[in-house]
């Protein structure tokens, strides 16, 4: 069984980037221990405060954010960090080579029901002569690494440094991430989709038609049946897509005209898009490739359609029509 450390070495990952990835893994393992304790760890419930997104922060959102912020700020390789739970980017070490964006706790609405949650990381190169939030304004294509850690029955980590997507499982005996899949490949075809169907009446006509045709099944224009899943944690839905294929989408909608998109580009869409593309899948907004978007703000949101290549391309055809 090969450890994360050994894999990073054997695949010649830049030693400094490897050291940072090991720090991210340590953050994941520490949060995994907290999550495993549930109510006994005092992690359940909400705080009185709201984040910059206008969402009431859960206790675990804040605990996970503080834990990661502390460890990354102590990492000399990190120049600055950006988090879903921080209004602005946070400067760390001026000589640092890396910028880290993260979603400390993804799937917050699942914490109190003991369901799947995770942490998502995106690593960009620092830019000489550019600091603060401006330094983060780089397309996802520039990411040096992306990973998520899923806290489920097992704790698993999906990682890419641009040489394919790899999966690791946390060995609770040794507290080490061990390789469980050295070359994740998303099947090009699928019979499974994930969307929050309760928003159906607010979707654009293209997405309404696409989903209606999936649900029409064998008797409909697609001529075969499709099954639906919704974990309400992007990390969980994307993990299913990486594990057995599928299409995951959080499309544009008119539910709240001031907020037509749900998911955040820098620390949700970009890292997931890199993991999916490196595993042979496709990630789009419906109109553009997610990794080619030029960001304008640290907390900007985008529409997301990702997963099995053929199925996402079929969905995009509906958006062309
Ligand atoms: O509540 P909904 O509409 O099902 O939305 C679920 C989506 O919101 C999220 O929970 C947003 O992420 P956070 O929990 O990090 O805020 C995604 O993980 C998930 O895909
Ligand atoms: Mg999230
Ligand atoms: Mg979150």
UniProtKB/TrEMBL annotation:
Keyword hit for Nuclease: no
Pathway in which this enzyme or protein is active: Carbohydrate biosynthesis
Residues covered by the Fructose-1-6-bisphosphatase class I N-terminal domain: 5-180
Cofactor binding note: Binds 2 magnesium ions per subunit.
Required cofactor(s): Mg(2+)
Keywords linked to the UniProt accession: Carbohydrate metabolism, Cytoplasm, Hydrolase, Magnesium, Metal-binding
HAMAP family documented for this protein: FBPase_class1 (MF_01855)
Protein name (record): Fructose-1,6-bisphosphatase class 1
Organism of origin: Ferrimonas marina
Native organism taxonomy: Bacteria, Pseudomonadati, Pseudomonadota, Gammaproteobacteria, Alteromonadales
Gene, per the UniProt record: fbp
């Amino acid at each position: 069984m090969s450890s994360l450390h050994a894999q990073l070495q054997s695949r010649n990952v830049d030693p400094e980037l490897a050291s940072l990835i090991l720090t991210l893994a340590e953050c994941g393992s520490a949060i995994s221990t907290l999550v495993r304790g549930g109510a006994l760890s005092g992690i359940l419930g909400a705080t009185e405060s709201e984040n910059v997104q206008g969402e009431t922060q859960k206790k675990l959102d804040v605990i996970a954010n503080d834990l990661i912020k502390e460890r990354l700020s102590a990492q000399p390789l990190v120049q600055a960090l950006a988090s879903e739970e921080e209004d602005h980017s946070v400067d760390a070490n001026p000589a640092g080579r890396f910028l880290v964006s993260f979603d400390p706790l993804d799937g917050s609405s699942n914490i109190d029901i003991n369901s799947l949650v995770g942490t998502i990381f995106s690593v960009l190169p620092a830019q000489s002569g550019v600091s603060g939030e401006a330094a983060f304004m780089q397309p996802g294509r520039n990411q040096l690494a992306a990973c998520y850690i899923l806290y489920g029955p097992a704790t698993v980590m999906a990682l890419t440094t641009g040489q394919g997507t790899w999966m690791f499982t946390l060995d609770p005996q040794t507290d080490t991430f061990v390789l469980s899949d050295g070359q994740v490949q998303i099947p090009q075809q699928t019979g499974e989709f994930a969307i929050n169907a309760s928003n159906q009446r607010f979707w654009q006509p293209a997405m309404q038609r696409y989903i209606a045709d999936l649900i029409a099944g064998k008797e409909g224009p697609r001529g075969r049946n499709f099954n639906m899943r919704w974990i309400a944690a992007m990390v969980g839905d994307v993990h299913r897509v990486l594990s057995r294929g599928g299409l995951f989408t959080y499309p544009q909608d008119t539910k709240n005209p001031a907020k037509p998109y749900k998911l955040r580009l820098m620390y949700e869409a970009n890292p997931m898009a890199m993991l999916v593309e490196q595993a042979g899948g496709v990630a789009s907004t419906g109109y553009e490739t997610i990794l080619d978007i030029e960001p304008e703000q640290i907390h900007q949101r985008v529409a997301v359609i990702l997963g099995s290549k053929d199925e996402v391309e079929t969905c995009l055809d509906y958006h062309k029509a």
